[in-house]
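Recall that a protein's primary structure is simply its ordered list of amino acids. Everything else, from secondary elements to tertiary packing, is in principle encoded there. The following example makes that idea concrete.
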Amino acid sequence: AALEELDFVDHLIDSDETDIFTLFMEDVKTPEKLARVGEKALRAGKPIIVTKVGRSDAGQRAAASHTAALAGAYTGYRAMFERYGIIVGDDIEEIVDIASGFSHWSHLLPAGKRIGITTGSGGAGGLMADTAALGGLEVPVLDAAARAKIDAHLPAYGTSQNPVDGTAQAVQQVGYARLNRMVMDAANVDAVIGICSARHSATFIREREDLIELKKNADKPVVLCSYTLPREGSIEIVNRCGLPLYTNMRNCARALKEMADYRATRERFLKRPNITTDAVDAAVGEKLAAADKTLCEYEAKPLLAAYGIPGAGERLATSGDDAAEIAEAMGGKLALKVQSPDILHKTEAGAVALNLLGGNEARKAYEYLTANARAYSPGADIRGVLVQPMANKGQEMILGINRDEAFGPMLMVGMGGVYVEVMKDVAFAPVPLTEDDAHALLDQLKGRALLDGMRGEPAADVSALVDLMVNLGRFAADFADTIQEIDLNPVLVHPDGDGVSVVDALIVKQDA
């Protein structure tokens, strides 16, 4: 029938009989459907949970050979999933467990990631606390009012800190339902995990009405997780009371994290303004069309400047005397860089000189750098040497555009410096972006805290970095059919209020 997986999802979103989708995905044959259907599902509050083949090179080969279609790089899929709140599970068991949490609590998703844990087994509670914390959740000490209320029901050897270890005695006397209700009432938790043993179903039969009442009057989600294999019938009893019963601690924690993330993503998306870009800059388009395939820094920066991406007042020198004259006019410390579309890695070619002063040093550097460039790449098209003021210190970042073969241009941002190739602390998003999109993308970076200032370092100008990301995304979106790659590396983010410096820039066009 020539129907794709997403065609079925698109149809069923409109059905009152379908609230959650679990998908096994190899590829998307019509990439624009992922954006359209993903947005439709997110607006409807109907989560899509996928397990995706092709997250490794080997998996991409398997998907391509099986479907006779290009699977696409996983970074592109991941960026699209992030934008539209599509949840990725590692395997089928995990996506079913995540769906279970949504199926019981889609009307009351966690407002945050602070988790209260109740247990009758100290060891199981500790294991769940570790699992939750390592899975991206918080396990705070409960507030004093909640602890006082709970302590009245605990033996002396129990604890109300969090996890709340009621011991077997409190579980027997108070019951799972009441214990979880008291933790739910704590002001500093967003959801509750009740650790239990489902080895015998008698406890749940006895507490059936209390569990039903717990669900009915809940103002935060509660889930149960058994640290023992459940007896046949236990899961059904708990489910009929309106609560999920997990048997996998990691999946239990992951479900609550994804439920909280989904709520935050959806709330942010529903507030997201429609991005209406100004008319494409026709002059930039004409210059871009007339340029060669690779645009060096001296060609790229004027085009980017038309989109609010700052340059550094650099000027191209075509002779040693020219370099000296520019250097004297600029003053201060300078950087000189050979400009050639055939030499993209200038440092490796010995084609960069830093911290130069005055015309004499600039003249000598011009001759030295061009000689190095010719020796490194005989026959290279050397256009001259760019003379540029040395930038002030700042947090080093990498920013760019990469064209995904399936989904088009993707903005990439990452922590820069000499370790960028090793650490690969980068994140991707489809363009264009809003300011909120840019902030959310930065929050994905492991090194994000470095931008807030550490060990006496001042906080970086994150708002200027966000503006740069938004403007670069707008440029890439306007010329999506032309651009293959943009590389701004490094970008120095100066202390708050001092802006950013784009130290180097490169644009590569698509083949005709």
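Residues 65-72 have pLDDT under 50 and may be disordered. The chain is about 40% helix and 20% strand.
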